[in-house]
Amino acid sequence: MTLPPFPPELSAAPTVRAFGTALASFACHNVRAHGVQVWAVTGGSLTVVGEEGRGLGLSDGTLAARALAGGQPVEEGMLACLPFGTGVLEFVGADPAGVTALSGLGPLLGLALEGVQAREARRGRGRVAETVEQLVRRLGGSLDLPEVLTATAESAAHALGFGRAFVGLFSEFGEQGAYTGEVFTYGLDEGFTGGIKIGPVSFERLVMHGEVIRYERVRDAGTPLAQGLSELDPEVALIAPLSARGRPLGVLYVDSRSRGARASEDDTWLVLALAEQASLAIDNARLYATETRKREAAEALREAGAALAGSLHLPDTLERILERGVSLFGADAAGVYELQPDGRTLNIRSAVGLPSEYVLRVRAKVGAGVTGRAVERREIVTALDLTREHLGGGSRYTRQLLAQGKYPYRGVVGLPLGTRAGVFGALTLYWKEVLPLVGDELALTEVFAAQASLAIENARLYEEELRREREAAVLLNVGRLLGEDQGDRTLAEAARLATLALNAGRGLIALTGPDGQVTRCATYNLHPPSEAERASLLSQLGRGPRPLTRRHALPVAGSALIVPLRGDAGGDHLLGFLYADDPGTEAPSDRVLALARSVADQMALTLTRERLLSALAREEARYRQLAEGAHDLILSADPAGTITYVNPAAARLLEPLSGLLLGANLLTLPTPATRPALAAAWDAAHTQSAGGRAEIEVGPHRLEVRLSAVRQAGAPHSVLTVARDLSELQTLAAEIQRRGQALEAATSRQTELRTYLTLFTQAQEEERRRISRELHDDTAQVLIATTRRVARLARELEGPQRERADDILLDLNAAIESVRRFARNLRPSVLDDLGLLPALEWLATQAQTDTRLEVSGTERRLTPALELTVFRLSQEALTNVDKHARAHSAAIRVAFEDGCVRVAVSDDGQGFTPEQAQARAQAGHLGLIGLRERVTLAGGELDVESEPGRGTTLRFTFPG
């Protein structure tokens, strides 16, 4: 094909897009292509500037980018790309000869494109630079946001000669587009409301692509854009995006209502340049305002923190938190909610501005309402307008007010108050109007909540420290009294101290005997209870301290508590109980109950001291009896090594060899060869907590000895020696060791083989995957491309040559199908793409034997490794059916159960006996053995059922 003449209209094109449109039409006509796209580098990226024809959906720009980067023509399927200068011609279904002929015009096309781009750049550069410079001088580095916005609108209106302009900042934006809130105008009527809506399509063009939207009444009448601008009623308008640091700020709008007004391409570039310069100025002004607010807020928070730190009493601290919270954030009311011991209820501990009835009746639930959600999530929760949002109320009273439309507040902020001991509660701020806080102001509330939490924690720690000091003094006095004397007067004094510490009016300490009945009773401000009253109190004892109601307390008491005195740290050994009551009806708090437990533990510890000493003497006698009857050798020696005790077993074994042991030296008993070992064990017993160990020989006996020091306060350590005759045990131990080593070696070898088999299987699957992918992605694609080229060549041939080409096409199609089938057999893509069940269904269709797939249970995806294992096992089982079973039908049954999956592959073939299976394995047919090993590697179980003439069933069970 001859070289077509260069079209002169390309060099004279006014814009790059006009050049692209003309070139696409010229190229599509000359190369007889289905479609043509012209790509050009504009703004640093490769974009489409012209197109002609159809089939352009096949292109995504990848081939054009490759051609431009390599500087050479590129062809792929029906697509072909021809680079020229900074542009690319992309053809769909073009005549190769025409593309080759057109490539001769590449240098001329590149020069023409460069000329058009240069003219386009020169046309708008001078006017744009002058207008931007005027705006910069007009702003003069101002950081006042209203001044910046007003100057931008005025400069844009003057520069374009349109007469009207405004700058609108986004108040909100999302999937439905955006709305302009704060607006600064020039030349507009006072009746202009200021808010316009930017639809999602326009918003994407403005914000995502950075384009300028151009509106013309004649062209755009009846469009959504015209409806959005109906209030302004412009003849022509330009809308440019304002954005900085990747964040959308708003829009710059310029229009004219003069009939016949038009906006040129230069006007578009001018507005865009003004918008870019204004965006920088707006962003700087906003940053300055933000920093100013932050400094003011930081100073206010610093003052608040200093005020909160000035008190260590919790009520005073809560009052200061509320006052500062209301003052800082302009709230109409505030309340501090405290989490109750049940962990589910929040009560108002302190409040400012809240009605008294509200404070008394509100019982918020954790997880409900603003306050409950803040405590549950441990993060700030806000309600812009609680009367409209579906957050509900935290208590029944709040929900009633909301339902009746009488709830007094609209804006609500819940702030969790946490300490190291856990959640204290929440600080909730209330406004009668819609929540006025946004962004950084809400972040400041979180900072203030953190300061409040710290102040609360400090106050609680201070009060806790005071309480602990008082409690420690009570415990110390009670322990000292009962430690010195346990008479009636001392017991009565202990009852007085305990009663006062528990903030009670009356109290008593009752001691019980071995039968569990009260034997002694000491009281404070209380007549000794009768036998029936003591029995009633005994019946109320539990495992620890517990409050008593008026019904179970002693007469006159409104509330009471009782705590048992147990001598074995909360066990079943009862020593007595401590009782205290008060005329008031308020139940004892958890703190009082905890103190009662501590006092009772201290009393129990002191009261059991004598009993422990008596028990120690009894235990010593019992241990001596055990030593006398033990079969092991037990000897005791003083620090010098002199034997002070010998049990009968040691006397029977050693005294015939060494004479009388009592008074002899322990270190001289063994033969000279093993004495150093005993001496080393002796030293270890004195220096190491675990004691010393050695093997020694005494005559014909080989003994294993263990030495441990018996430590006594204020006295040298004696040594206890326990020995065992090893003569009979050594032979048995050697045999056990030998067999253990052999078993360990066999286990290690089996583990290595299983590890190797696992890695080998994984490598095999990876290799199959790679080969399948290469066959599908490379070989098959090459064959497809070759098929297309042969098909294209066949269309150009005639007669016998065309028939030969058609035969080649048939062979190529058969080869493609063969490659695809081989790739699927190696690694079916359906397993990776769709999962196990579709893969098994495909496997059933590929089997030579008529096979069906049955599934039961709730279907779910398994792990990729387990799905691959099940697929391969089923594939191997069906292969065995096709080769050996002589079956008419087969079935794959998959059962999804809780915690496991069961797979069964069955057939109605000839079956086999265990002897036949073993014979086939010895003959080298290892299919069943391989299946069993693969199931074991996957952590599953294999069950084989087969009888001659009744078919075979393989059942695989895997956890998962």
TrEMBL record:
Keyword Transferase among record annotations: yes
UniProt source species: Deinococcus hopiensis KR-140
PAS domain boundaries: 619-654
GO cellular component, one term: membrane
Protein name: histidine kinase
Top enzyme category: transferase
The keyword Kinase is annotated on this UniProt entry: yes
Pfam families: GAF_2, HATPase_c, HisKA_3, PAS_8
